[in-house]
Specification:
The structure holds 2 protein chains of 2 kinds. Chain A is an alpha/beta fold. Chain A has helices at 3-6, 78-82, 108-112, 127-135, 138-144, 159-171, 186-192, 208-215, 220-231, 250-261, 279-284, 299-310; strands at 21-31, 39-44, 65-68, 88-90, 96-98, 118-121, 123-126, 147-151, 175-180, 198-202, 236-242, 266-273, 316-318. The longest helix of chain A has 13 residues, at 159-171. Chain A is globular and about 60 Å long. The chains are: A alpha/beta, B alpha/beta. The A-B interface holds A 2, 4-5, 8, 28-33, 36-38, 41, 74, 76, 78, 114-116, 136-137, 139-140, 143-146, 319 and B 598-600, 602-603, 605-607, 609, 613-615, 686-691, 694, 717-718, 720, 723-724, 726-727, 729-731, 733-734, 737-738, 794, 796. Bound molecules: iron/sulfur cluster (2 copies).
């Protein structure tokens, strides 16, 4: 069964299969902005931070959850009729609503929804199953200098699973990258060093109080981990998600760039312009998007900020 | 091989002269020119007593001597096809009933508009009166078995292209014409003539052909002479001394070539142009392809190095590119749906291997790519051959051009095409020397009559008939054999057997239809000038149309591989494997075009694996569907003694062919387009470009030796920077290592296209690739524009 076919059904019991499984919410092929060359991106579900601008809100919660895509719905009401918990019904506005408390994630609605409107995000996979998907594009990695990137969520939040995946990738001779927010025990990161060729580290804000406001967590451990990874000799790319009004002040950009410049193994500093492509997913998960009113930067703004960063650190890039 | 040794030469942007010529081109609306139609009608009236091939030569002579000629401001390469730039001549000898019927609509139809004056209409009507019953079209129709004509009319296949038009689809021996001159062709014909023994009936037959060759070649030389005279007289009247010198030089060159061997690059380009132009005037076929231009032109370019500034050489190429785009052809309104955007499909290919297997890249390979960037026109169709020894620098330059979003160059895989041609009986040297005709069809130039675009075979329609016991849902007529239906199938093998039976039946009829048209051309429209530049016509003493070429083929294309594959996959998976659906439910859903059964349509769309996602289940079925078509085609032989060979590409016929096909089990609504080429169905390849090309590479591309076509679209951000070029190369390389045949890239955002659709004025020069050729987007029919927009945008 390939990743695409897995989306048609859901079984909670998959988690209890023998051997380590991990919770994966997406596998994307032909990713070209996450570690060099053509890559497959494996997204692990669950994250310790709660960034307000998160464009993958389905990545936060460390368990499977219902996500309904209304524009796929053809109103066949099969899901409503079939749900054993009667968790699905029309809400006041005539829209289909889900009672997420009643729902016990049996997956019946997913199987019955041919239109792909009722979905559950998160599948429990073994490292072997992940690698089956990753293996498919090996020729492209070899031709382009690409490989596999583990992202999230926060991939290091499932340390054993991540390590088995990375070991399997290394055993195949693949280039490996891990995209991390850095908020994990140092021991976890240290254990990955041997099997990771490149760490893509996000920094959200240099001021810890502000960091806590924006993400729910302070930044000391994050900055410390990044510095230690680099000092220990791991290649690092820093990435700053540039969010209007949150972390785009001159002072923060300069401080971030200076921090980056101090890393001995820095491979580059990427500015990731804020966009709103993930906004709908907040609604589809039954949540409220905290940054609804924030307009993205203009292209000129982003360029100006990148120039500013460039005065303090080399290898500044835009995009991701 | 030493990849790193080849470096790109210094390249130059457009000159002022080029820019001015481009501006003039874009501002010219095509029109209809009556001159050719009048001249050929007069000539035919004068020559009724003569054998056909001589009548053709005399007609060409009269046209070239009598048609209006002109030299435009700043032109360095001269030679016009009709009375105005971009105007199209008319070819009544092939068919003219449709022209007459559509005369009043040409100027206000939805795509490919041609201006036409009342005076022109009157002249044409007068000429057409002569042709009733005399055209190749009427002759072919008379020769065609009625069932074959009926299936054509029901659009199970269409042999329309050569049924109504000239054949074209050829590349002549440009090298011989340029390096030895047409005088040498005349001399060869004379010699052959002198050796004939007229007492032998077989040899007597050759006489008229050889005489026709002499007349036709002399007519071309005299045509060049008219330009020499015109340039001289313009020079005499010219006040600007620089232009005067240019005109004098043009006059000198036109007196020399194409009669005598060319020596300078300018002479070679001019000689090339006269030959290429007259082939267009002699017959109205499209896809007359320069092919390996960088190979046969490089000696002249190399010789001029140091004597001619490189920007001057580039300018000549750029001006030639504009001349290519000025060639035009009017098609009937229906064909315009299939061939939209004034395309001439003149394929020019660079790089690849030489006859000895070494890398063929030279300075001109790069300069041709540069010419495409400088002119940003839809012609010629630019292609590049890729082999193990393709220099990194050429790959990079090609990627830079791809990234401009014009859809070219198209990439071709030597590793698959050379073995495919060997399997068709070409010698190893000839196979290595292949070029591309039209959209994607490989052949060796100067010795092949490939009849490459013989027909479009509607695999979607065949699928509909296979599920419906041979009854056409659109008309209710029984048109195919009774091969079973959704009511009677017991196993998936029954379904496959029915698909196979319908395919076999209609391929057989298609072969009959093609052969009838083929014979009609041989009898009614032999082409002496074209034939004289293709081996072995002079030696064999017969025209190309009568089988004079060294290699002969007929290549009909299957359209809708992805649809046929995904239909069969859906039935196999949902009905027989998973038992989610019964055949009766499917029948009812299809009959009602999914009215009230959207849930089943969604099941068919989303629950069955789809070709184009690197899913082995779906890909294996698509491969089998393609193979069945290809093997049926392989059975047949044409009247020129050559074999039929299948292709899998659509031009843009996937839209009109789809418009006669009822709802299908791939979840496709009735009358909507089929998938194009071997590309997955729009919107069904949801796993990105790598999965998409891996899927497509699983088909057997070698058996489809008349060409397969893959359209792959990228968002510009996926190709940014050197890394982007590298990624593009990695996709091409992997596709080719896995056995792909051709790939072309569209690098345009959906937003841009939508905007262009809304404000065509602002996007007059936006070029997109439409399944095998590039066209001005705004010149396309709305439904085709929509189809291009709907093609999956591959981002991540
Ligand atoms: S099953 Fe799917 S399509 Fe049908 S009503 Fe439920 S969400 Fe909508
Ligand atoms: S997953 Fe939840 S909503 Fe869906 S059928 Fe089961 S209980 Fe009902």
């Amino acid at each position: 069964m390939n990743w695409k076919q897995r989306q048609h059904t859901f079984r909670l019991s998959d988690r209890d299969r023998p051997g380590p499984t991990g919770l994966v919410f997406d596998i994307q092929r032909f990713a070209v902005h996450d570690g060099g060359g053509i890559r497959t991106l494996v997204f692990l579900k669950g994250c310790p931070l709660r960034c307000q601008w998160c464009q993958n809100p389905e990545s936060m919660f460390p368990g499977p959850e219902i996500l309904r895509i209304p524009h796929n719905c053809i109103s066949c009401v099969k899901c409503m009729t079939l749900c054993p918990q009667q968790a699905i019904c029309y809400d006041g506005g005539g829209e289909i609503g889900i009672d997420r408390v009643r729902c016990d994630l049996c997956g019946d609605c997913v199987t019955s929804c041919y239109a792909g409107s009722m979905t559950i995000v998160g599948r429990y996979l073994t490292a072997g199953e992940v690698m089956e998907e990753v293996d498919r594009d090996r020729k492209f990695y070899a031709e382009s200098g690409g490989g596999v990137t583990f992202s999230g969520g926060e991939p290091t939040a499932q340390p054993d699973f991540l390590l088995s995946c990375l070991r399997a990738a290394k055993a195949r001779g693949l280039h490996t990258a891990v995209e991390t927010c850095g908020h994990s025990p140092w021991e976890t990161l240290a254990a990955l060093r041997d099997v990771v060729d490149l760490f893509l580290c996000d920094i959200k804000h240099m001021d810890t109080a502000r960091h806590r406001e924006l993400t729910g967590m302070p930044n000391e451990r994050i900055l410390d981990n990044i510095a230690r990874l680099s000092q220990a000799g791991s290649a690092v790319r820093l990435r700053l998600p540039l969010v209007p009004g949150a972390n785009d002040s001159e002072a923060n950009i300069v401080a971030s760039a200076q921090f980056a410049a101090g890393l001995p193994t820095l491979e580059g500093f990427d500015i990731l312009p804020y966009h709103r492509l993930g906004e709908a997913k907040w609604r589809q998960l039954g949540r409220v998007y905290p940054m609804h009113d924030v307009a993205p930067h203009t292209r000129e703004d982003v360029l100006a900020k990148a120039c500013l960063a460039g005065q303090h650190v080399g290898g500044v890039g835009i995009g991701g | 091989m030493s990849q790193h040794q080849v470096q790109a030469p210094e390249l130059h942007g457009p000159t002022q002269r080029t820019t001015a010529a481009l501006a003039r081109f874009v501002d010219t609306t095509p029109s209809i020119c009556p001159e050719r139609a009048m001249l050929i009608t007069e000539s035919y009236k004068e020559t009724e007593a003569l054998p056909m091939v001589l009548r053709r030569a005399k007609a060409l002579e009269k046209i070239l001597a009598g048609m209006p000629i002109f030299i435009q401001d700043g032109e360095l390469i001269v030679g016009n096809q009709a009375s105005k730039p971009r105007s199209a001549p008319i070819f009544p000898e092939f068919s003219c009933k449709w022209v007459e019927a559509e005369l009043d609509r040409l100027a206000n139809r939805t795509a490919d508009v041609f201006l036409i004056s009342e005076e022109t209409k009157a002249k044409l009507r007068q000429a057409f009166a002569y042709w009733d019953g005399k055209t190749t079209n009427e002759f072919a129709a008379a020769m065609m078995p009625p069932q074959a004509l009926e299936a054509h009319n029901d659009v199970v296949y269409t042999v329309g292209n050569y049924f109504y038009n000239g054949v074209g689809h050829i590349s002549v021996d440009y090298d011989k014409a340029i390096s030895q001159g047409l005088s040498s062709v005349i001399a060869a014909a004379r010699q052959a003539l002198e050796a004939l023994d007229y007492a032998d009936a077989e040899q007597l037959k050759k006489r008229h052909f050889l005489e026709a060759v002499i007349i036709a070649n002399q007519a071309v030389i005299d045509f060049a002479g008219r330009f020499a005279t015109l340039a001289s007289s313009m020079a005499a009247d010219c006040a600007d001394p620089i232009r005067r010198d240019e005109l004098t030089e043009i006059a000198r060159i036109c007196r020399k070539v194409p009669a005598q061997p060319a020596e300078t690059f300018h002479e070679a380009v001019q000689a090339f142009w006269f030959v290429h132009l007259v082939i267009q005037i002699e017959s109205n076929g499209h896809s007359i392809s320069p092919m390996r231009f960088d190979q046969y032109m490089e000696p002249y370019h190399a010789r001029d190095k140091g004597r001619v500034l490189p920007e001057k050489a580039q300018e000549l190429l750029d001006l030639l590119w504009i001349k290519f785009a000025e060639l035009n052809k009017v098609r009937d309104e229906n064909s315009t749906m299939a061939f939209a955007g004034y395309p001439m499909f003149m394929n020019l290919i660079v790089g690849g291997q030489k006859r000895d297997g070494s890398d063929a890249t030279n300075d001109l390979s790069f300069m041709c790519l540069q010419a495409a960037a400088n002119t940003k026109l839809y012609a010629p169709s630019l292609s590049i051959r890729i082999h193990e020894g393709t220099p990194a620098a050429l790959y990079k330059k090609a990627g830079e051009i791809s990234r401009l979003g014009m859809g070219y160059p198209a990439y071709y895989n030597d590793r698959v095409i050379i073995p495919a041609l060997l399997a068709r009986g070409l010698t190893r040297e000839d196979a290595r020397d292949y070029g591309i005709i039209g959209c994607v069809e490989p052949q060796v130039g100067g010795k092949t009559e490939g009849w490459h675009d013989a027909a479009f075979f509607n695999m979607g329609k065949v699928m509909e008939l296979a599920l419906n016991d041979g009854v056409d849902k659109r008309t209710g007529k029984q048109i195919g054999p009774k091969s079973g239906s959704l009511e009677t199938f017991k196993t998936f093998d029954d379904v496959m057997a029915s698909y196979k039976a319908q395919t076999a039946y209609f391929v057989r009829l298609m072969a009959a239809a093609d052969n009838a048209v083929d014979m009609a051309h041989a009898i009614r429209c032999p082409l002496p000038f074209l034939s004289s530049l293709v081996d072995d016509c002079i030696a064999a003493g017969k025209s190309l149309q009568e089988g004079g070429a060294h290699y002969n083929f007929t290549g009909p294309q299957g359209v809708g591989v992805a649809n046929a594959g995904d239909c069969l996959t859906a039935i196999k998976k949902l009905v027989f494997d998973d038992r989610l659906l019964t055949l009766a439910e499917l029948r009812q859903a299809l009959d009602s075009d999914f009215e009230g059964r959207e849930d089943l349509r969604q099941m068919l769309l989303n629950r069955a694996p789809k070709y184009g996602n690197d899913d082995d289940y779906a890909d294996a079925v698509a491969k089998e569907a393609a193979r069945i078509y290809c093997e049926e085609v392989n059975r047949y032989v044409n009247p020129r003694g050559g074999r039929f060979q299948p292709g899998l590409y659509p031009a843009s016929a996937n839209v009109p062919l789809g418009s006669v096909v009822a709802a299908t089990p791939d979840g496709r609504k009735a009358w909507s387009p089929l998938a194009d080429g071997v590309s997955p169905i729009s919107g069904c390849d949801t796993c990105g470009p790598t999965a998409s090309v891996l899927s497509v590479a699983k088909l057997d591309h070698e058996i489809a030796s008349n060409g397969t076509l893959l359209n792959q679209k990228f968002h510009p951000t996926a190709l940014e920077g050197d890394q982007g070029l590298n990624n593009l190369k990695a996709v091409t390389e992997t596709y080719f290592q896995n056995g792909g045949f051709h790939v072309q890239y569209n690098v345009i955002s959906r937003e841009t296209l939508l905007e262009a659709q809304a404000q065509p004025e602002a996007y007059k020069n936006l070029v997109v690739r439409v399944a095998g050729y590039s066209a001005f987007f705004t010149a396309l029919d709305k439904s085709l524009q929509d189809d291009i927009i709907a093609r999956t945008e591959q981002t991540f």
